[in-house]
Amino acid sequence: MTVKERIASLRETLKLMGLKAFIVPSTDPHMSEYVASHWEARQWISGFTGSAGTIVVTEKEAGLWTDSRYFLQASEQLQGTGIDLYKEKLPETPSIAEFLKSRLSKGDVVGIDGQVFSLSTAKAMRKELGEKDIELRSVADPFKSIWEDRPPIPQNPIFILPIQYAGEGCQEKVVRIRQQMEKDNIDVILITALDEIAWVLNLRGSDVHCNPVFISYLLISHRDVKLFIDERKLTPEVKSYLNDCEVKVYPYIDFYSDLEQNTCVDKVLADPAFLNYAIYQGLSSHSELIERKTYVAFMKAIRNLTEIDNLHHAMVKDGVAMVKFLKWLDTEADIYHETEMSVDRQLHSFRAAQADYIGESFDTIAGYGAHGAIVHYEATPETDAALEPRGFLLLDSGAQYLDGTTDITRTIPLGYITQEEKEDYTLILKGHIDLAMAVFPEHTRGSQLDILARQPIWQRRMNYLHGTGHGVGSFLNVHEGPHSIRMEDNPVTLQAGMVVTDEPGIYKAGSHGVRTENILLVIPAGEGMFGNYLQFETVTLCPIDKRPIVLELLSPAEIDWLNRYHAKVYEKLSPYLDKAEQDWLRSVTTAL
After folding, report:
1. Does 251 sit behind a cis peptide bond, omega within 30 degrees of 0 on the bond before it?
2. Sign of torsion, CA 415 420 426 428?
3. Strand 84-87 and strand 109-112: pairing?
4. Which of 143, 344, 443, 533 is most buried when burial is the number of CB atoms within 10 A of its CB?
5. Residue-wise pLDDT tens digits, 431-448
6. Is the whole-model pTM more than 0.85?
7. What is the pLDDT of residues 171-222, one digit of tens each?
8. Domains present along the chain, CATH in parentheses
9. CA-to-CA distance for 576 and 572, rounded, in angstroms?
10. Beta-carbon neighbour count of residue 117 at 10 Å?
């Protein structure tokens, strides 16, 4: 079926259901950023392969709402589908609710599959549509009848993360959670986010591409811990482990009925951002739902000493792989015979050779030239660009190791670079360094630091529309909250032990893209006026290419930071390299 035929089939189904429109998000029942193929309905119906976006289908129109990372990609992939692109956060772009209110009439019904629609989004949508007496209704999944050969829900086996990587046992984590529940008079905590479940139980899986999580729900009360999961995932070893941890196992498909029948308690805590609308509707009328971040989100975000130690180990391994790759690209590769996909494969081979390597933490973004301006570009056989000895290769990649998750971006000159490209590269490096050098008082929000990374390009009337920094899991999801560094306000403050990326960028359509990304660890900076202060330690270990730098654009402090960073990179990585690799690394890390 073509995209147009799929949309026509959906419209026929909606007509039978009495719906005037249907909204298809990119999520699963756990509100995951990346989902198992069973729930990729938005991709199936539209042909758009980006990780974020929402499709709206009415009787006569169809539209895709997505963010700036995917503007160029979506524009290309939606051609000929009849689906219009709506670019989020631009002044002229209506919200989905505004679009629906302008197309529908009083009394019309908009459908959603409540199992893949977040509570917070559904509530906001219901309120706004209600202003025009348009109903938002949760209905049965319409794709069950129209999506032929739909992939099944994954049944991959899960495994135990040993204590030498987790740093804290499952039972100890449950004790800490229950202490917070007691303090707040909470009866049950409902955990639906897959990475939170994996963290609490010290278990990992492979149900979601690049994310070591498994499909499940977790209920923690003062009496018991209940895990809802397909038991085919559980090896005898994992079953014994869960029994030792006093975790009771129930079928995944029984979760909704159990919730309705047995959760007749006073207070249930759940994160509305990860709670789907169907769960909300199914909660007992005798239960009071407390909608806020779970304790787990904050506990997970603050690394224990073992996790921090392991993070440094993972960064050394990833740095070694990156250096081997960069040396290969610089001194051994025949640029004329390489493409975006071939360099991706080469980098993968260097990472896969490292100890405790599990896989990639996301699909590598290798964008050459104009493709670098597509923020989340992914090369395909149809788009795979051949490299040339000029311009930039933007390479954003990461790995999953048992001891940590990595995420790094380097913008690599392949030959002749224009003055504009050099200045853009230097301004982004300047913003990256300014954020990395920040010292700030406790209780500072990421949004208060975001300007440090953007100021150099703001002064040139340029900007980027993605966030500057996101949390990174500990052998978990590459994108993690609850903290962030971005323009939009986030009330969660940065605390010692959190990790966050530092990744400003510039993207010029049809020309080039520049981004430099490292992972930062929040550490104490000592006591000062009115309290304690924090700072960042850059934990990523990989040289930053000096060839495109316009030196006069950097301050003495920024040059000093880069020199000290490069000295650290050489010190930490050189013992794991051969003589030729050491010589190359020494040459690219010499002081400016």
Report:
1. no
2. negative
3. unpaired
4. 143
5. 999 999 999 999 999 999
6. yes
7. 999 999 999 999 999 999 999 999 999 999 999 999 999 999 999 999 999 9
8. 3-146 (3.40.350.10), 159-300 (3.40.350.10), 302-587 (3.90.230.10)
9. 8
10. 24
